[in-house]
Amino acid sequence: MGLETIPFATLDKYHIEERRHASAILTMDYPSEMQDIIDCLNQFELLRSEIAVGGGGKTKIAKRFDTFLAGRGWREKNVKVTRKVDDVATESETHKIDFFKGRVAIEVEWNNKDPFFSRDLNLFRLLHELGVISVGTIITRMDELQVIFDGLPDVWDEKWKRLTKIGDKYGPSTTHWSKLIPSVDRGGAGTCPLMLIGITAKCYRDDFTPEQKNRQVQETIEKLRNAGVAPEKLRSFMDKWELGGV
């Protein structure tokens, strides 16, 4: 029993791999948690309107995973690990799992710094060795999405008063599939079974209406002119929106 237990519609939208029979363990021992994961993936869309949104904290994209899983009873879990020598506590550590239900852990790494993968895998290893979890799951983005990001028109950065490329927010040192797999293959999770899920371009939807696109263009053009941007840069921006001319 392998990934064939996952519906074709889900496999068509996501790149999914497993390690140490994670899919079979979920299907046989944790069917409710497995169904939650499948339903979460099936309802998710990667919206253009949310890709361009910046700011600190979690993005709207990550928060939509949070909202769905929380609605299914998944909760953040803090695990305190105490080390003892001769029955004397010498060290105490608290580890946080973003989503926990049954004995299944999920971490969503949409656009964090890539060292987060090593942290997640090491946490899965530790908690599996301690008997806290049976399966660790990581959801991240596939490399192919960078083509979409790079192809979107630049957006106005109000803080720096300049145009910024959307693709620059999703750089090579952030969490994506090509950063995850080497950490997995180096044995970062130890013997913990893993479900690895990559968000592909098939999840993407351009949800901008013509009216929204026009409004954004006009607002950005006004900001560019007010900032005294050179005509050639203004023309380049308009050409990318297929408007032509100044």
Outline the structure in words.
By secondary structure, this protein is an alpha/beta fold. The protein has two domains: 3-207, Restriction Endonuclease, CATH 3.40.91.20; 209-246, no CATH class. The chain has ten helices and ten strands. The chain has helices spanning 8-13, 22-29, 31-43, 48-51, 60-71, 115-129, 145-151, 177-185, 210-226, 231-240, and strands at residues 14-19, 46-47, 75-85, 88-101, 104-109, 135-141, 155-157, 162-164, 194-199, 204-205. The strands form three sheets. It has a six-stranded mixed sheet. The chain has a two-stranded parallel ribbon with strand order 2-10. Strands 7-8 form a two-stranded antiparallel ribbon. A hairpin with a 2-residue loop joins β3 (75-85) and β4 (88-101). α2 packs across α3. The longest helix has 17 residues, at 210-226. The model has no long low-confidence stretch (mean pLDDT 86).
